[in-house]
Specification:
The chain is an alpha+beta fold and about 450 residues long. About 30% of the residues lie in helices and about 25% in strands. The strands form three sheets. Strands 6-10-11-16-15-14-13-12 form an eight-stranded mixed beta sheet. The protein has a five-stranded mixed barrel with strand order 1-2-3-5-4. A three-stranded antiparallel beta sheet has the order 7-9-8, with no helix packed on it. Strand 4 (about 70-80) and strand 5 form a beta hairpin. The longest helix has 23 residues, at about 125-150. The radius of gyration is 27 Å and the shape is elongated. The two termini are about 30 Å apart. The structure holds 4-amino-1,4-dioxobutan-2-aminium adenosine-5'-monophosphate and magnesium ion. 4-amino-1,4-dioxobutan-2-aminium adenosine-5'-monophosphate (4AD) binds near residues 166, 239, 430, 435 and 446.
Length: about 450
C-alpha cells in the first residue's frame, strides 16, 4: 500500500500511474453507473477521491458501503485540474476490508468536541483529532530532538514513588492492601510496612527529584513521561494524568533555565509549523483564527520578564477585573496569569521570584529571605505552561526549609546527599505537554489535547 501522504508529497511521480491505497470511507455517493467515495488513510490530513464504475464486479456491494468502512483501492491516479482536490483515483478494483454498520456515529456533519469526548475510541478518525494528535506526536518528537541535539541525557524516572515532589499532597496512592481489611498499627494508623513496598507509595507528581540525581551525574538531563495529580479542579487545563517534560541542568542558574525554556518552546513551535502545515492551517481556519500569526510572532520576539512583586503591582491596579482580588503573597490564578500575558505583555512572559510560601520546598531562597528563584512561563490563552526554578543547593538551607515544612528527613536523604557530595548550582523546569499542545493548536480544553483524558469523575477507555 502506498500512503496518501506519499502521493501528495511526491505527486509528479504518481500521476497517471497505478497506485494501491488502503483507508476508511469518509463519504460515499453513487448514481446508477458510477460512484464516488472519499477515502482517508490516516497518513495525511487530506483525503483522496475515488471514482468507481459499474464495470467493477462488486459495484453493487461498494454502493452499499457505509461511512467508516475500510477498503483497499487499486487504480490510476489522474489529475483533476478543475476540482478542489488536485487528483483522484479511477478505481480498477475496490476490495472491502471491513464494512461499517449504518449507525456509525461519525457522519459528515461537524460534531461538537463535547460529543466526541463521549466516543474517545472513534474521535481520532475526525479531522479535528487527526490534526491534534499528529501535532502532538510531532511536538513530542521535536522536544526529544531539541534536547538530544544539545546532548541532554533522557532519563526515565519512576512512576511509583514514595515522595511528594511538589508537597501539595495531591497524590494517587498505590497500594495492594485490602481496603476492606486494612492492617493498622497500635497507634491507629495504616500499617504500610505490610504493603507491597513496605511503605506508603503513590504515583509520581513530578520526576524532578529523580532527575536531579542524574543532573548531578550527567550535567544536562531531561525526563518526558506521565505524571499524576489528584487535584480536585475541574478546569479546562487540569488533567489527573498528564505528560511532563522536565529538563534539569547543572552549573546553571535561573537565567540559564529561562533561556533554555524559551529556546525549547520556540524550537517546538517552528518544528510543528514546518512539519504539519496542513494541520496548522486547519487549526488556523477552524479553531483559532489568529493562531499562525501569533505563533510566528512568538518565535521572532523575546519573551517578557517580570518579577512576581512587579506583577502583583500591575494586577492590584486592575483588581476590579478579577473575581479573586490579588495582594502580595497570594498565588496567581488563571485569570491573573492570562491578564498579564494577554493584556499587559501580549506575548509569553516569565514571572520570577515568587514568595517562598506558595512554592515548593526545593527552590533556592533569594537574598531577601522572602522570595525564591522560581519562574513560571505564562502564555496567552492558557496561563501557566511551564513551572521551574533554581534549586536550593546548600545543604543547611535546604534542611532548614524541610524542617520548617515538617518534611520527613529520612524520606529525602538521597536528595540531601546531592547537596553533600559535589553540590552544584542547578535548575530545571516542567513543561506540561498537554498545555503545550493546546498552545500549538489553539485547542481550548485539555480533554481534547490528550488521547484518553483522565479528569475528576472521568476515566473512560
Ligand atoms: O508547576 P509544576 O507543578 O512544576 C513541577 O512539577 C516541577 N517539579 C517542575 C520542575 O521544575 N521540574 O508543573 C509543571 C507544569 C505546569 O506548568 C503545567 O504546565 C503542568 O506541569 N501541569 C499540569 N498540566 C495538566 N494538568 C495538571 N493537573 C497539571 N499540573 C501541572
Ligand atoms: Mg506550577
Amino acid at each position: 500500500l502506498i500512503t496518501v501522504r506519499e502521493i501528495y508529497r511526491n505527486r509528479e511521480q504518481y500521476l497517471n500511474q497505478e497506485v494501491t491505497v488502503g483507508g476508511w470511507v469518509r463519504s460515499i455517493r453513487d448514481s446508477k453507473t458510477f460512484g464516488f467515495l472519499v477515502l482517508h488513510d490516516g497518513t495525511f490530513f487530506e483525503t483522496l477521491q475515488v471514482v468507481f464504475a459499474d464495470q467493477l464486479e462488486n459495484f453493487a456491494d461498494i454502493c452499499k458501503l457505509n461511512v467508516g468502512a475500510a477498503v483497499i483501492v487499486k487504480g490510476t491516479l489522474v489529475p483533476t485540474p478543475e476540482a478542489k482536490q488536485p487528483f483522484e483515483i479511477q478505481a480498477a478494483s475496490v476490495e472491502v476490508e471491513g464494512t461499517s454498520a449504518p449507525d456509525y456515529p461519525l457522519q459528515k456533519k461537524r460534531h461538537s468536541v463535547e460529543f466526541l469526548r463521549t466516543i474517545s475510541h472513534l474521535r481520532p478518525r475526525t479531522n479535528m483529532f487527526q490534526a491534534t494528535f499528529r501535532v502532538r506526536s510531532l511536538a513530542a518528537y521535536a522536544i526529544h530532538k531539541f534536547f538530544q541535539e544539545r546532548d541532554f541525557v533522557y532519563v526515565h524516572t519512576p512512576l511509583i514513588t514514595g515522595s511528594d515532589c511538589e508537597g501539595a499532597g495531591e497524590m494517587f496512592q498505590v497500594t495492594t492492601l485490602d481496603l476492606k481489611n486494612v492492617p493498622m498499627t497500635e497507634d491507629g494508623k495504616v500499617d504500610y510496612t505490610q504493603d507491597f513496598f513496605g511503605k506508603s507509595t503513590n504515583l509520581t507528581v513530578s520526576g524532578q527529584l529523580n532527575a536531579e540525581t542524574f543532573a548531578q551525574a550527567f550535567r544536562n538531563v531531561y525526563t518526558f513521561g506521565p505524571t499524576f495529580r489528584a487535584e480536585n479542579s475541574n478546569t479546562a487545563r487540569h488533567a489527573a494524568e498528564f505528560w511532563m517534560i522536565e529538563p534539569e541542568i547543572a552549573f546553571a542558574d535561573l537565567k540559564d533555565d529561562m533561556v533554555l525554556a524559551e529556546s525549547m518552546l520556540k524550537y517546538v513551535i517552528r518544528y510543528v509549523m514546518e512539519n504539519a502545515p496542513e494541520e496548522m492551517a486547519f487549526f488556523n481556519n477552524f479553531v483559532d483564527k489568529g493562531l499562525i500569526d501569533r505563533l510566528n510572532s512568538v518565535v521572532s520576539a523575546d519573551f517578557g520578564h517580570v518579577t512576581y512583586t512587579e506583577a502583583i503591582e500591575i494586577l492590584e491596579k486592575n483588581n476590579d477585573n478579577f473575581d479573586y482580588k490579588v495582594s502580595w503573597g497570594c498565588d496567581l490564578q488563571t485569570e491573573h496569569e492570562r491578564y498579564l500575558t494577554e493584556q499587559i505583555f501580549k506575548k509569553p512572559v516569565f514571572v520570577t521570584d515568587y514568595p517562598k510560601e506558595i512554592k515548593a520546598f526545593y527552590m533556592k531562597m533569594n537574598e531577601d529571605g522572602k522570595t525564591v528563584a522560581a519562574m513560571d512561563c505564562l502564555v496567552p490563552g492558557i496561563g501557566e505552561i511551564i513551572g521551574g526554578s533554581q534549586r536550593e543547593d546548600d545543604y543547611d538551607k535546604l534542611l532548614a526549609r524541610m524542617n520548617e515544612l515538617r518534611m520527613k528527613e529520612e524520606d529525602y536523604k538521597f536528595y540531601l546527599d546531592l547537596r553533600k557530595y559535589g553540590s552544584t548550582r542547578h535548575a530545571g523546569f516542567g513543561l506540561g505537554f498537554e498545555r503545550c499542545v493546546m498552545y500549538l493548536t489553539g485547542v481550548a480544553n485539555i480533554r481534547d489535547a490528550i488521547p484518553f483524558p483522565r479528569t475528576v469523575g472521568n476515566c473512560e477507555l
